[in-house]
Amino acid sequence: MSKFYIGQGSLGETNEAARQAWVSPLVDSFGLDTHRYMLYPAGGGYSYIMNVTNGLVLSESGDNLIGNWGMIGSDTQRWKEVIPKGSDIFDNKRVFINKASGKGLTQYDGGTSGRREVTEWPYSENLPGFTWILEKAADADLIKIHFEKIKCIKPSTGQDGATKVLFFGIDAALQAGMAAATGGASAAGSAALAGKAVTKAAVIKAMKKEARGELQDTVKGEVGDRAKQAAWDQLNGYVPGEINDLNASVNREINRRTPNAVSTAVDVAETVDNLTSIEGLFNTVYGESPDDVELRVNEISIWPGGGRGHVGMRSQQEFQMNLDYIFERSRGLNVQLVEYDSGSADDWLGSFGLNLQHLTKKERFVDVLIRSEDEGSIYEVTFTIEPYLTRQQAELKVWQEMQQAKKTQQDEKNRLNQEKLDREAAQAAITPFAATLKILGSENGVSRIPLNRYSENPEKLFISPAIYLDVTFANGSKSNVYYHLQAPDNVIFDDTSGDPDDLIKLVYTPGPGGTEIPGQVTATGNGVGTAELKVSFRNRPWLTASVSVEVVDTQVPVTQQVPIDPKAKFLNYIAEGSRAEIALPYTAGVFQMTHIQSLCPSGCEQSNAESGLLVVLVMPEHQHNNVAADDVIGQVRTVFGGTYCQGELKKGQGRMIFSISDSYGNNIVNTILNPAECGGDTAQSAPSNSVAGGEASSSSANGKYSDLLQTLSCPGDQNRYGAYADEGYWGGGQWCRQQGKAGYWVWVSPNWYVWGNQR
């Protein structure tokens, strides 16, 4: 069975034969791309069968013939889509029934040649030619224009030479306004208007801004020229012999016509600043003779009657069009007005166009002017224009929008999930998972500290041992042992709930922003026993850690006391005094000082072959394998050298021993400051009743005595008493050729310090 495709043999002609719909076996048999149709909704379950190429729809043409005409909303153009018996919606077979006639679309009785007329006949399943197959054609990018109304401002008919002169002032003003509205610079530059859609509102606005002087000059000059031409036109055909002086006659005619014409034109130009007068140009009734108007789009006549005939329009007459027309974007838009002329070629009443390249949404144009300078006509057209989607395209767009919405929703879900994972990862990096709390010198989870910091300490217990808190985070990473110093806001120490007898207390060190951070623990002096120091975390309150602290009395009974080497005693008191003055851990330069202990073979806080003040330093920002030992030693001398060389330790010929490690406990280097490195002995203080800042702690036996009464310089006592000695109370008398006062005597070489009271 052969397939016949509907098409049209002509695009622009308006006669019945040219608009006749045909079928042929070959799609391109007409040499024109007129075989593509689509179904355009007509309401009530009916559709228009619209040709994509020319925008016309299948319509009854009379005598059972079917033609292609512009859409007018008539039932003769509406078709019901029916699935034939024995078919289903998926095989794309259809029967189309006309709403007006009830007949079916067919090519029955349309001829038997290769090109046959499309007809309509009473539908019967027994007759051939009623079943049509919908085959998919190439997609089309379509535009829909809806004409709302058309109005005649000034028709072209009835203009003789005098009328043209009279209306030239109006034409010049309008042309100037339209040129300005479209970007033209000259009032006479009509070429600038070609192909552009200009609204009345834009023209009025531009006319108000147009320079009046320039417009007057243009109008006067052009009116004079046209008046002359009109006079010559009127005298044309006169026989020279019948007029004695042709030139005189012409001049008289010019003089008669020009003043009124110029006056009228100048009046118009002088009122361009007055909106009422400008709008009056569009509201004046110009003559009574109508134009026989026909509207075309892209050379195809679509109004009136879908392209059948023309309509008479007088000045200020308006028609409601309510007309849809669909065309391909690639063809562009050119709207033309034509005046039908039965005796000669039709007259061109003007046109306008639009650039549709970037049209993405519905737009409305109000009172777009269509003007012909040659014919002197002015019309207004109001319309909307928008992209149009076929049913399949609309369904595809809805599907694509749904898919895009799903993708957007999934993307947002993925983004939120990723943000959650990022937050969890970041939180895991700072959330403690496990914690260990220790105190310097603790063994088997218990740290022993002395009850009284000033009592004898033969076990060399740390008086204020440093707190160590190391944390394992939820992501598996670990902190160093000073987590409480690095994240003080997240740490909560509890030295009360596990210490009902108030045996211990925290020692605070300065923190950022004027805060204080617990860094050590010491005895309160309220008694001996065992207390528990606890810690928890603000971002994980159920995670806790604790360490036991035993407070012991280290005072040795008098009967058990053994003499302590003077040098050891001196180093012990220097260490005690240093810890009393410096809250550990203490930051100095790139170092963090964590421990200060006396060090010697016997009698010191720590027994060792070396003698001196042991200072333990940590470099929290470095690791042992990425820093040079010489650089570290240089930093030690820079940071601590001055203090050592001016202090009591150096004066007593004691050494300062440094052990430097990284935050993970890896040793970096050890170094020693010797008195010989200070470049000479420090000058001895003259006797006085005051103590230099560096000597105050040692000379008062680390705060054991108060109220300094006297200072005696006795360098000769160095050999007898060594660097330091606490001799207790003496009633006073002659000493090293000086009168000593009664009081508590403390020797810190090379001076004796006499104190009034014991605390």
Write a compact overview of the structure shown.
The protein is of the alpha+beta class and 759 residues long. It has 13 helices and 41 strands. The chain has 5 domains: 5-140, Trefoil (Acidic Fibroblast Growth Factor, subunit A), CATH 2.80.10.50; 141-158 and 287-388, Sandwich (Immunoglobulin-like); 159-285; 430-640 and 648-673, Immunoglobulins (Immunoglobulin-like); 696-758, no CATH class.
Helix content class: 10-25%
Instruction: Write the CATH architecture name of the largest domain.
Output: Sandwich
Q: In percent terms, what proportion of residues is strand?
A: 25-35%
* Mean pLDDT across all amino acids: 77
The CATH superfamily of the largest domain bears the name Immunoglobulins
Classify the secondary structure makeup into a structural class. alpha+beta
What value does the Rg take, in angstroms? 56 Å
